[in-house]
Amino acid sequence: MLSITIGHWDAIENGIHHVRDTTFKEDACSISNHNAVRTMVILRNLIIALYQFQFKTSKRKPGLPSWRRKMKPGSA
Questions:
Q1: Whole-number Å distance between alpha carbons of 52 and 65
Q2: Can you list the positions of beta strands (E) in 1-76?
Q3: Based on CB atoms within 10 Å of each CB, which residue in 34, 41, 59, 60 is the most buried?
Q4: CA distance 14 to 66
Q5: Per-residue pLDDT tens digits for 31-75
Q6: Are 45 and 38 in contact (CB under 8 A)?
Q7: Any idea what DSSP says for residue 25?
Q8: Measuring CA to CA, how many Å separate 52 from each of 9, 20, 26, 44?
């Protein structure tokens, strides 16, 4: 049971949390309102899901940070 739990949390920490922290600097975020924090986590997860959906079948996809910069308004 312990190895299953450790494996589960290791996957979370090294998976989605690592992506959110390296791409969005989530650990350095200074938002302190609980609802705002939850909203930002949802929005960040949505962005990651959209990225993964858009390049689901692509063999060569841009990195998430460069894709995110390209998607900003006025960056065309």
A1: 13
A2: none
A3: 41
A4: 20
A5: 999 999 999 999 999 988 888 888 887 778 888 888 877 877 776
A6: no
A7: -
A8: 21, 13, 19, 12
Q: Say how many C-beta atoms besides its own lie within 10 A of residue 20's C-beta.
A: 20
CA 60 remoteness from chain centre: 19
Largest Cα span, the chain: 50
Instruction: Calculate ∠ Cα 7-5-11, nearest 5°.
Output: 35
Q: Rounded to a whole number, what is the distance in angstroms from the first to the last CA of the chain?
A: 50
Contact (CB, 8 A) for 7 and 36: no
Residues in the chain: 76
pTM, whole model, 2 decimals? Answer: 0.66
